[in-house]
């Protein structure tokens, strides 16, 4: 009998320890869930402010202002570095940033954008049109501002390797002679069941 009492007391102690452990884990999970809710609310508030029309108009104005201080440089040599392009345009004014566009493999596309600190430097940079850099004649124009959703329409041209997109037109009747066979016009002879 005493053995049963000792076993029950030991099992009650282990049950209480497990229960305390489970309560601690539950408390930790609740704290973690509260922290996640706070982080999510913070992110949603930031996203909501980014989609605010007033801030979107402000960012569009910032882009237009930066584009008014920038020039497009075409026919840039593929081995040119941004530092070399910056040196070439240093005489026009203080260069803020040089961007050489690359494709998805990291190879240069052959053109760059140069942003200046002053708007007046753009007019001086336009004077460098048709100047040479790395033996190539540069094409310098003022940078235009992209307007979202205003992509010019280009009609699709059918390529030579694609089939025409004309709809399937069924023949008005099936040929009695089989596909691709035409009757021959010759003198009627004896009847032949095998034509």
Give a written overview of the molecule.
- The chain is α+β, with helices and mostly antiparallel strands and 195 residues long.
- The protein has a domain at 69-142: RRM (RNA recognition motif) domain (Alpha-Beta Plaits).
- 41% of the residues lie in helices and 15% in strands.
- It has 4 helices and 6 strands, in the order ααβαββαβββ.
- The chain has helices at 2-50, 53-68, 82-88, 120-126; strands at 70-74, 95-102, 108-116, 132-133, 136-137, 139-142.
- The relative contact order is 0.09.
Name the descriptors.
195 residues, alpha+beta, Alpha-Beta Plaits, four-stranded antiparallel β-sheet, two-stranded antiparallel sheet, 4 helices, RRM_dom, RNA-binding, RRM domain-containing protein, RBD_domain_sf
Strands, helices and their partners?
Elements lengths: L1 H49 L2 H16 L1 E5 L7 H7 L6 E8 L5 E9 L3 H7 L5 E2 L2 E2 L1 E4 L53
Antiparallel strand pairs: 1-3, 1-6, 2-3, 4-5
Let me know the average pLDDT.
80
| Helix-strand topology string | HHEHEEHEEE
CATH architecture of the domain at 69-142: 2-Layer Sandwich
Walk across the major sheet and give the strand order: 2-3-1-6
Tell me the helix content. Answer: 40-55%
Provide the CATH topology of the domain at 69-142. Answer: Alpha-Beta Plaits
Coarse structural class:
alpha+beta
Model regions low in confidence, pLDDT < 50 over at least 5 residues:
none
Number of extended strands: 6
Could you give the distance between the termini?
109 Å
Largest sheet: 4 strands, antiparallel
Domain RRM: 69-145
Biased composition (Low complexity): 49-61
Protein name: RRM domain-containing protein
InterPro entries: Nucleotide-bd_a/b_plait_sf, RBD_domain_sf, RRM_dom
């Amino acid at each position: 009998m005493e053995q049963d009492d000792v076993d029950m007391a030991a099992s009650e102690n282990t049950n209480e320890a497990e229960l305390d452990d489970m309560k601690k884990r539950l408390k930790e999970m609740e704290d973690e869930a509260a922290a996640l809710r706070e982080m999510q609310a913070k992110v949603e508030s930031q996203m909501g402010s980014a989609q605010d029309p007033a801030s979107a108009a402000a960012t569009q104005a910032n882009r237009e202002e930066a584009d008014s201080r920038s020039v497009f440089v075409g026919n840039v040599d593929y081995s040119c570095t941004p530092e070399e392009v910056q040196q070439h345009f240093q005489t026009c004014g203080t260069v803020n940033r040089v961007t050489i566009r690359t494709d998805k493999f990291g190879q240069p596309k052959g053109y760059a954008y140069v942003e200046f600190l002053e708007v007046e430097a753009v007019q001086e940079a336009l004077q460098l049109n048709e100047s040479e850099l790395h033996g190539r004649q540069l094409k310098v124009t003022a940078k235009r501002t992209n307007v979202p959703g205003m992509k010019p329409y280009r009609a699709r041209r059918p390529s030579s390797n694609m089939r025409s997109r004309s709809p399937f037109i069924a023949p008005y009747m099936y040929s009695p002679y089989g596909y691709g066979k035409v009757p021959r016009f010759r003198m009627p002879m004896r009847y032949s069941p095998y034509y």
